[in-house]
Amino acid sequence: MTVEEIEKLAAWCAAAGVSEIELAETGFSLRLHIQSGNAEPGAMVAEAAKAEAVFKGVRAPGVGIFRLVHPTTGHPVVETGRSVRKGETVGVLQIGACLKAIVTPADGALGAALVEDGTVVGYGTPLYELL
To answer: What pLDDT score was predicted for residue 56?
Structure first.
């Protein structure tokens, strides 16, 4: 499940008045506990849609250390400002000794990195804007 899908699910649950949901299947589980605040459910859905529409870019696919420079080659993975295609590798997420490619979700021009090389990031952290 992507960050966007989880955000939509949370917004739908909030709009429907559902305060807790748990999903589980082989190799994946998710538990959401939605705390009610002062906002109306419709406003929460609108806010989630607005947040989704605002950020168009590359997010971290997991938890790890964000690398702009490939740890084994010492060369930058990609140059900022360059046109990229959907699925193209634009960075590396280092998780212990493992390296996971960070790929673009859509075509576009790669904006500047929003996070410095060597920063620990969480799942869904915005890494680059796509212009």
So the answer is: 81
